[in-house]
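Sat 14:20. Reprocessing the chain from the morning session after the first attempt stalled halfway. Input below, unchanged.
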Amino acid sequence: MSETTGTTEEKKPPVNGRRAVPSSNSNDEENEVPEMEAFGLIPRGFNPKDYLRVVDIYMFKDPQEINKQQHHTDKYYNPKLIVRRGQPFQIQIHFNRPYNPQTDQFWLEYLIGRYPQQNRGTYIPVLVGDVLKPGQWGAKITHKENNSIRLSIMSSATCIIGKFRLYVAVWTPFGILRTHRNSATDTYILFNPWCQQDAVYLDDEKEREEYVLNDVGIVYHGDINEIKVRSWSYGQFEEDILDACLFLMDKAELELSGRGNPIKICRVASAVINSRDDNGVIAGSWDNTYTSGVAPSAWTGSVDILLEYYSSKQPVRYGQCWVFAGVFNTFLRCLGIPARLVTTYCSAHDNNANLQLDFFLDDEGKLDTKLTKDSVWNYHCWNEAWMTRPDLPVGFGGWQVVDGTPQETSDGMYRCGPASVQAIKHGHVCFQFDAPFVYAEVNGDIVYLRRETNGTQVIENIDTTHVGRLIVTKEVGGDGMVEITEDYKFQEGSEEERLALETALMYGVKKQTTQDTVYQPQKDVDMEFQVHKAVLGSDFKVTIIFRNKSRNQYTATTYLSGNIVFYTGVTKNEFKKHSFTAKLEHSSSSTFDVMIKSSEYLGDLVDQASFHFFVTARIKETGKVLAIQKAAGLEIPALRIKTQGGTVAGKEMSVTVEFTNPLKQTLENVTLRLEGPGVLRTMKKEFRQIPANSTLIWEVKCFPRQPGFRKLIASLNCDALRHVYGELNVQIQKP
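Finished this time. Tokens:
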């Protein structure tokens, strides 16, 4: 019985003084395994053919066969055996003669990487015994017939995730005989949310179907006043995606022996999903210029991005938060870690992490963009991954925040998480990784300040409820939205919320004190405003409402600033300035309308057609300031998708995409994309021009692969118009 598999002398990389064996961080590399490993001198009369010899190994690896059915891996478009750890699977071995347990001895060997070692879990000898122990490596014979035996093999519930090579070894008095290298018997081993001993075990079947097996999802975007919905194709089962996901761990140079640990995998993946500092998968761009790349809004799913990266090994251009999160979700679900994409509306990006977002106003009450460094993202997407946290005290397992969008460095790299959602809610931000940063994204006060000429800062207003107002994800088993804000924070103003904040402060989250700055708000006047529904290309109005609850008459000098913003809350430019004086009668409400013309905003729109309005009002009689801000978006026209004729697996089907240009201008260099996991691989079509008010029709023929409930997703993209989507649910019949 050999502990390590004999490596032939090959060119080894230089070994440093600390290690006897070079680090092993590539699933792709292999070692040479001798087919005859002699114990010493071999006598002249020795003939390997006299001993038990393996003729063939049958893997039961087709989608309809027992292994992929029982292991929920039948959807992977991959010809090799794919199983989940900690659960038995079957193989059949055909020998050159009947197997005799009294005289014949054989075992299986699973190897991964170039330097297999038993103590690192990269060389696994599996002996044949009488019983299988749950969650431990072992094999037993379940059936014998003529020259063949059927084995049930149990893998360890903590086994490394990746692609293993399989050898069958036979003992002879003079040495070990092995099967030759045969890639057809390679076995992928994945995480197993169905296995109680696995760190990613999830006990609800409907949740497992959603968070592991669903290959499409929903991205919530827009802003809190107008939530927008689009589908995203995760495509974790599509051809070559599993290999692409394993390659990401090689790219991140994660030691093979650490690849059984979902905490380590999530942490390195959150860094490798973005291209900052490690040439990872996606290059981010937030400046509305996407030359020599694809605009983030044009992607319809993760498959194209992962396959392009897998083949080119160069960052794919470009992504923004939902693209990073969509690809990260594909990676997690593909490896078997339950995962979901989460959107936080009004997510704080607090540059000095003091739980306070400082917005500086000038003397007129206008926002001073030079002094204001913090921003509130209209929305921000990240992921949650489900796992136990044995590295933390009991109670902090379950959903963990992981974020692949590069915002701040963590331990010297752009990455974030895994951070326990439960720890964030209770303010226990001392627990790794990056909990203070996530806590600040969903908790924080907006403070409006004015700098006096002598340098002192006067607080004009504080808004304690704006940040992290709504956190949502897709519901299990349907396309509805479910709010999960309460998973992250207690009810605003409750005793528990106070306590969580005090705990977070105790554990080192900074909160600026406001004692040296005097602040007494104007309590007897309320101000709010509404942005009326606006369709792209049309005029709309903003209504400002004052409620004077006092017995005094007031005069309010009011200033409205309309800005075109990126969804990250960063201003591109101010397109509307409007000042007026409002007379506020005692004990009454007054409303004022401001018209916004399409000619004022159309020339400068960016990506998501987002506006940000600031309204400030100074009460003349008291000198106090009222301030509010709100994001608003334009309604963007949708694509229409239709199918014609039959929708049967394996038979030709016709899909048409239609779009009518709503603008008063011709759209130029328009790209359409269409994809649907299990139905068709991404198709692209370029159109030179779509004149104003004209309709474009694109017809595509395809052969759907998978029967069942499927989704088609389309996007349209050009410089003048982005974030145009359409989708269609289709039932693909069995042939």
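The chain has four domains: 36-190, 215-507, 525-633, 640-732.
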